[in-house]
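Inputs:
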Amino acid sequence: MSDGEKTTEVMLPTGSDLVLSVSPHLSAADSVRRIMYKVLLALIPACVAGIWFFGWRALAVIVVTALFCIGAEALWCRIAGKPVLGTIADGSAALTGVLLALNLPPEIPFWICLVGAFLAIWLGKQVFGGLGNNPFNPALVARVGLLIALPAAMTTWTPPRGMGADSPAAAEFYSPSTLHKLQGKKVGLDSVTHATELDSVTCATPLGVVGTTPKILDKSFEAQQNFQAVDNNEMLWRYFLGIKGGCIGETSILALLIGGILLIAFKLINWRVPICYIGTVAVFTGLVNYFFPGVTPTPLFHILTGGLVLGAFFMATDMVTSPITPTGCIVFAIGCGIITSVIRIWGNYPEGVSFSILFMNALVPLIDRWCGQRPFGYTVKREVAK
Amino acid sequence: MGTLTAAVMVMAGIGLALGVVIGFFAKLFQVKSDARVELVTELLPGANCGGCGKAGCSDFAKSVVSGENPPSKCPVSSKEQVTAIALALGIDAGESFAKKAVVCCGGDREQTLRLANYNGVLDCVSASLVAGGPKGCAYGCLGMGTCARKCPFGAIEIINGLAVIHKELCVGCGTCVAVCPRNVIKLVPAEAEVHVYCNSPAKGPAKKQVCRVPCLGCRKCVRAAEGKFTVNGFRAEVNYQAPELPTAEDVQKIGCPTGCLLTAEEHLRIEMNEPEWSAGKDE
Amino acid sequence: MNKNVKTFHGGIHPACDGKSLSNGVSVQRAPLLDKYRVVISENVGKPPKPVVEAGACVKKYQLIAAADGFVSANLHAPTSGRVTGIVEVPGAMGVPVQAIEIEADGADEAGELLPALDWRNCDVALLRKRVEEAGLVGMGGAAFPTHVKLSPPPEKKVDVLVLNGAECEPYLTADHRLMVEQPEAVLEGAAISARILGVTKIYIGVEINKADAIDALNAHAAEFGIEVVPLKVQYPQGSEKQLIFAITGRKVPAGGLPMDAGCVVQNVGTAAALADAVIRGIPLVERIVTVTGEVVAHPGNWLLKIGTPVIRVVEWAGGVTEEPGKLILGGPMMGFAQKSFDVTVTKNTSGILLLPRTVAVTYGSSPCIRCGRCVAGCPMNLVPCALGNAVEAERFDLAAQNHVMDCLECGSCAYVCPAHRPLVQHMRRAKAEIRKRKK
């Protein structure tokens, strides 16, 4: 290189702005915030379905609960002297809020949303030290807390669009007086549910109907037909689409599956967890149904009703509160499935998804311990080469 | 009324029965402990700092009772406390040298160059594992507060990126000395007032490139105050073994050209007055 | 390339590997400088002892520091000139280190070379001695003296030599260019190493993103009885244990060395240097270095003499387009961030990487959300997030129980961590504390 060339505008670094950090110096593009927003994105189909079936009131519940959660988080951070904006910006409070809203009945009073938001953010998350340290899923802490404290409000279900008095098995879901009031009227958006004269139109959930049906412990024809009214192909199809009473987010299995596929496509969840969870419920209820058809409906009924799909895709897969190793996740999912089935079949509550996930959340540290990985280069006996 | 009485009776009965059971087992499995150990433990400060080399105060009490250690081995107890323990056991108190820790570095954020913007765990040990830390001087205090977090007595404050020891709180347990990755903290006799606030053995010009207050090894102090200082390589040290320690007057007389030779009070005052820091610190 | 390329379990695939910046640029020879500062303690083990005094005149290739003990390596003058003395320079690890400063006379006149050896027929002891004399060290990064590696204790039965041409580090292309431009030197060096070790099975593992290198090697591999093994592009494919597993299916036991699995792993750069030393009698004084990064005006690969200051190399590469946010010696995954541009090229400098702030990661202190990506990415099957938490709580006993000592510090965990936790720093801290406690 000649001297002439050297002088032509070679800009040399001064080294005045060097950052000193440990290796690696590159990072994958993902961040906690992006993960949270991606999960929120995956929840959109379920939210849309909830709004379609329950009207604008459902949207109000979702928005209000999310805002309450963000407010509760901001308030806690202010009191605790943590940076407020940074904590809210990670989107975890909004996500908790939306998840909680999807677990509430559509006609829930807003003050209950407020209580729920504080339960979720304060009791479910911040008392343990905030995001990452909470042993239990915050949204489920709030839901179970509300369910125990305010059982009436939490189990008052409004009929979704398309579940009028003329729909199949209407007699199973409505009380005779409600059925009478509903005669000849449409249900759903701009529906009778909001009309003053029909202010208190409520319906039962499929699981609620099953829960109140007397069980038959033999294999007689009556036993086979025990749940026929709510557990037949036409009804199952309606459950799949979302025409059933229940929480805002759990009605439409179709929408939840779209969201679940998004989660798997974003590589946010391990597909084995929802599959193992739902599979365990299917196997367990299938066995019981096979031997005692009068005790519980078919597995497909169990999959398509209640909060199982919502729980399996969005709750049991919560990163913070599920085990960290792949094997641990499967153990966790199977445990959730067994407890859900047990509660649904024999428990006092018609639904057991929330309880089962919370219960298994408590076992996560143990599962993590039992399902530790064998590091590379260790033999089965864990001998170390000297 | 009957229900209430029954409930009260049942509760009382259960309480009584359990109380008896607990009392019985407490007597059955009682661990016989030496009363003297308990006495000594009570007389000790109870900070469990580990400065004596034992696992904690009760462990140290055991070793005192067994005669393994003299009571004066506890660096935290004052002379009176040590005497009280010795009297209680009827043994010799042992000779005690009260010590205090001192951070031999004056290189705060203004005085010493930071060569790079450090991005990582705010802990001195961790930082020193990343290219030796961001500080221009490879020997000075990193100022990320590992010692301050470890000090059982809260005697260390990080002021403007420099650890400073509050002498009145320091008991000389040596915890900070053990955790400092740069070995910049030294245990010195408690009565020493004057220290050389530089820890770098590097050559003068090299030090001057990165720091405004280094010891340049000019020997001014050695010449002015006979026997009170030694020069080790390119760095002066206070001769803490000398019968007479340097005083504030000596510092005046010497007039260290870089100002790294200071009394502890003066050093603390200089650091506390740093304008940038005082804004964020409630003093 | 077929899909059944070999690989290991775990690891990551960096989305942007930056190799295209420099993988098509041929190796350039650096101009002569007026001053070189050769770092004395370049190798793992004991630093060599300087054998020249200040003021002495040296010729190129002349010994300037002699190995001190077995695990130590000779150091030779990179050019002819006058020794001005021993100076302190910033070391690649951040701590100032001693270096021999040589003022070049501009003649670059070579001194007496060692006699060339007929490696196929001469005594193995002679070959081993030559490796020692030439001051060869592992050029992949660790700088472990090569003659030590090639002298496994007799109780360890070594039957496989694995040549590491994976170059899994993003951005780096030095080995890639070497394999493309001098495949014969690499292969011949491997064959000589195999003869020293007395093994017949020689593999050379190359990631399939270096198709031209695989072709170039395959053209001559048969002559030397070497098998070229295409490997999946997966970081850290070039880590010894992972490479051995990918190629031979053997697992190096935990805490063990490759020779515990009957293997010796050698970097392709070392092999080429070894061939030079044996066939032409040239000791190790220069190496290929990738000078790259988004802010470098003309990224490329340079044949640099040891002791060259990094700032000069950046100048030859056309300078920078903007002020870099990070200067890294080595690759971006395991390389060391530097505090100043005064560091010098050493025998194990594989790359000089200048990253802008926007590309370099900024570590945060947000908590772990237990997403488990680090667990999936760890090539050693550890649970990095749990180890990180243990270190944050200063529970080093817990970290030791959970095998932190097996950590490679490859950085896969920190790379995938969405919370940008400085996990590698935690691992290093744990290792340092545990070692301290063992003493």
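The interface with chain A takes residues 115-120, 129-131, 133-134 of chain B (CB under 8 Å). Flag for discussion at group meeting.
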